[in-house]
Design brief:
Elements: H1 8-18, H2 21-26, H3 36-54, H4 58-64, E1 67-69, E2 72-74, H5 79-88, H6 107-120, H7 122-141, H8 144-156, E3 160-164, E4 180-183, E5 189-199, E6 209-215, E7 228-233, E8 235-237, E9 243-246, E10 249-254, E11 265-277, H9 284-320, H10 344-379, H11 383-418, H12 430-438, H13 447-461, H14 466-482, H15 489-513, H16 518-553, H17 556-581, H18 584-592, H19 597-600
Parallel strand pairs: 3-6
Antiparallel strand pairs: 1-2, 4-5, 5-11, 6-7, 7-11, 8-9, 10-11
Amino acid sequence: MPMYKAPLRDVRFLLNDVFDYPSHYQTLSNGADATPDMVEAILGECAKLCENVLSPLYQSGDEEGCVLKDGKVTTPKGYKEAYQEYVAGGWQGLSTPEEYGGQGLPASLGLFKQEMLGTANWPFSMYPGLSIGAMNTLQLHGNEEQKQAYLVPLTEGRWAGTMCLTEPQCGTDLGQVKTKAEPQADGTYKVTGSKIFISSGDHDLTDNIVHIVLARKPGAPKGTRGISLFIVPKHLPDADGNTGEFNNVTVGSLEKKMGIKASATCTMNFDDATGFMIGEENKGLECMFTFMNTARIGTAIQGVGPAELSYQNALAYAKERRSMRALSGKKDPDHVADSLMHHADVRRMLLTQKAIAEGGRAMLYYAAQYADHMVCGYLEEDEAKVELWDDKLGFLTPILKGFLTELGNEAANLGMQVFGGHGYIREHGMEQIVRDTRIATLYEGTTGIQALDLLGRKVLLMTQGGAVRDFTLKISNFARKQLGNKKMRPMAWKLLKLTAQWNWLTMRLMLVARKDRDMVSAAANDFLMYSGYVFMAYMWALQAEAAHKALAGKSSGEAGQSGEDFYRAKIDTAEFYFERLLPRAQGHAESMLSPSKNLMQLATEHFAFDN
């Protein structure tokens, strides 16, 4: 069974040494209570919940799965009790304003919490995770009456939430949405239609579920311009705000999936269900992007989480498992064979996992500061501030989601590879991590969709390359400062070359796309992966610099041997990343400039295998 230990040492390193979160929180209007002692207490208590309650349910939940009977979904044994413990700890409202029952802490703390939850037990974490997306949407776009009726019980964890977008005839192309919303005399709507692939669509963890639904009013414009957003609860609130009468929201089916079997993925049917419009008419997709972006950042955690979980268990196995002798001679002469740790190829796999997990975590924590500033802009009703940080975070979101989930999938497979044949059987749980991770590259927009969003919309259309210029300026400014530091100089030079190349590639694609529109789609995936490798290189350089400073500022006695070892491991892993993984970026650079002709020239009928 996979075991999880919260990587608190690494988390503290990022918060205190790399990103200086204590100073960051002092700049936020909602950061006064996020003192170092408070943050430490939150991290420690969350670690206990994840290690002692959620992690033990990970494998058993997969084996049992969810069950649909008599129109109701039952979650695996132990899930309901675990959720009650989660709610009792006040975890759901960690970053929700106090006026709606939350603790009013910065958004980043919610992300740190979600990372631990997701690594310990991703299927479980999806239930409260989807609710957080619904809460964010209500907080930003709901009116006060809606917030009191729905945001308060969601914050308290008494109710849960979902996001209902996809329909049988459309996935990413939401312009094809057919679900109808008929206006009623009392200002409500009757919502009718079917939604598929709805995570947490039904379950027994709460007594009500609030569905956030995309639907179309009669006579609305075609395509995405005619979509509105609605609150459609499973049960309508009664006069006292408690769970009331059933609202004609039923489960059509429970999906049988490759992984995340303990997460209920449902087909939801709405049959003249009462709905309440949220936000402006025909602006539903804009409002839903709040939910979608929340989910996309959350899904990026599913790149870091499986890399961390798979690495922890693969490392323990590699230390104990013995096979053959090291090529450089006996390392464990008292045993019949040396441990796997003495084989260079096994170390390659473990270091790749470690670099992905810790580099990806740094990427998330970096972006979390952007999210903190953006949320404060909303709370302060400062539109300029919101727009500034929303644009910055919007550029990073597709990279985080697309790049990290692809690398998380790679890391999970490497962990199974370290186990050899034992990784393929269910006993050790490594194959479960692989199965659970695979969906991350698909939902909330596939990697290809994220890539098109990044290159086609965020870079070329919206900013004409400005987003890349702004971000690479930050990287290059850091790198220039490191040129005088001989320990950091090799990384600094590489970063400077990469920032110049990133801008050149962007300009080159912009020019080519003017004549060849297919070039955007043809180059997008490579552009996203290239961007991800450079972003992660920046994060590893930041960590290396912080580790060097820590070692220089403390004697061996002050730091302690464990501290010395931690910092040296950071530097060694950073060097591994720059020398072994970062070269992949050049392959993507070469590929993205390859003309679209080699993708489009093969006639459709010639794809057939029996010509």
